[in-house]
Each structure stands twice: as structure tokens, then as C-alpha cells.
Amino acid sequence: MAFRPILQRRYVPQLALGALTATTFLISQKTLHAEAPHPDHLSRKPIYDPPTTPKPRPTPKQPTLPLDETPHPSPPTPTDRLSSLISRSRRFLHAHTTLAEDRLNALLSSLLHTEQRFTTALASLAPPPSSSERLLPGTIYVLVAAMGGSILTRNRNILLRAATPAAVGLGAAWYVLPITMRNVGELVWEWEERVPVLAENHMRVRGAVEEGGRIGGRWTREVRGWGEGVVKGGREKVEGWVRKER
């Protein structure tokens, strides 16, 4: 307190001058920028710590066991063996049962198809209702004719006894049941077409029979004409002799 008057009187001008000089010196060392911040401001360290990104966790590696330390599978238990045996037995039975069922279905389908074809073939042999041909009396006539041929050749050789009833019955069938025999011929021809060799032989035999029939018919006509001429000439001679006698 004793130095306050001295400070107020002597050192106030010097202190004011020194403060003014220091202020001027500090202002002259700094350049003011209206827009851009000072580089010293950029080089200052931030107050807060920068944000840190979490580092990925390393994938744990699977422990590799040496070849000698590889774990061996445990042997199956009796329950596992029983379950495996039952499973194999069930699969075996199912497979064979399915196979047997498929074969049985195929066999039944084949039998039904064969039966249908057989009934269709029999139905196609019958004459149409509009025709005057009847199967019941006609079939009886054919059987009687075949039996008659067998009776006529009962004392002959075995070849003639076998061929004569068949030929007589076949001729009677073509005469009594022409429509049915034509249907039978068409059905037989359809079956023969499935075997080319049999069809060719049938055509060859049929052609030979038709040719023989034509030749026989021509010979029959010629013999008939010759016989009629001989009879006519003999009759004319007899009539001439009768006239002379008168």
C-alpha cells in the first residue's frame, strides 16, 4: 500500500507505453484472413478421439488332426444292425411284390386282349341278319355230308379215308354256307399275311387250284360238247334208219 502512490505517479506512463508496444508487435506478426482459417488452426489436434472402425474378427481355424489321430467310426450297435436288416427286407419284398404285380397285370391284359380278339373274330364269321343263311341247319348239313364221305370210304386206305370226309364237308360248306365260308377265308388270309412265307405258299396253291379249275371247266365243256355231238349224231342216224325202215 505504501508503493501505490509511487506506481501511480512514476510508472503509469511507462506501463501504458510498454503495453501499447507489445500489442502493436503482436498484431504485426499475424495476418488476418476473412474467409480461410489459419494453417496453425488446421494443425491443431482435435479434442476428441477420432472414431475407430471395428476390426473384423479372425475366422477360427479348424483344428487339423494328424493322420494317425483321425477318429474311427464306432461299430454299429445290434439295434442299428436289426434296423438295417429290416429295411433291406422291406425293400426286397416291395421290389419283388411290385414286379410280380406288374407281370400279373400284363398277363391279364394279354388274356383279355386275346379273348376280345377271339370273340370279335367269331362274331365277324356269322352271316348278316339280312341274309337267308342260317348257321344251325347249315352246320348240321355239313356234318352229315362229312360223315357220309367217311362212311363211303370206310374200307379204303387211310389217306382216302382222311381226305374224302374233309373234301366232302368243305364242298358242302361252300354250297350251304357260302357267306360264312367267305368270312372264314378272309380271316384265315389275315392270319396268313402275318407270315409272308405262308401267304406266298397260299397264293401259289390258290393260283394252282384256280388254274386247275379253269382247265377242268374247259375240259368239262369240251367233253360235254363232244358228248352232245356224239349223242346228236347217233340220234340222227337212228332216226334215219327208222325212216328207211318205214
What does this structure look like?
This protein is mainly α. The protein contains eight helices and no strands. The protein has helices at residues 4-9, 12-28, 39-42, 78-125, 135-152, 158-176, 178-193, 196-245. Helix 5 (135-152) packs antiparallel against helix 6 and helix 6 (158-176) packs across helix 7 (178-193). The model is unreliable at 32-36 (pLDDT under 50).
List keywords for this structure.
single chain, 246 residues, mainly alpha, 8 helices, 72% helix, 0% strand
Task: Return the average pLDDT rounded to an integer.
Answer: 77
Q: Helix segment count?
A: 8
- What is the helix content? over 70%
* Helix vs. strand class: mainly alpha
- The quaternary state of the protein chains shown equals single chain
Taken from the alpha-carbon principal axes, the silhouette is elongated
Cα gyration radius (Å): 66 Å
What's the order of the H and E elements? HHHHHHHH
| Residue runs with pLDDT of under 50 for 5 or more positions | 32-36
Describe the main β-sheet briefly. Answer: none
**Number of separate strands:** 0
Distance between the termini: 224 Å
Q: Approximately how much beta-strand content do the residues carry?
A: under 5%
Strand and helix layout:
Layout: H1 4-9, H2 12-28, H3 39-42, H4 78-125, H5 135-152, H6 158-176, H7 178-193, H8 196-245
Helix pairs in contact: 5-6, 6-7
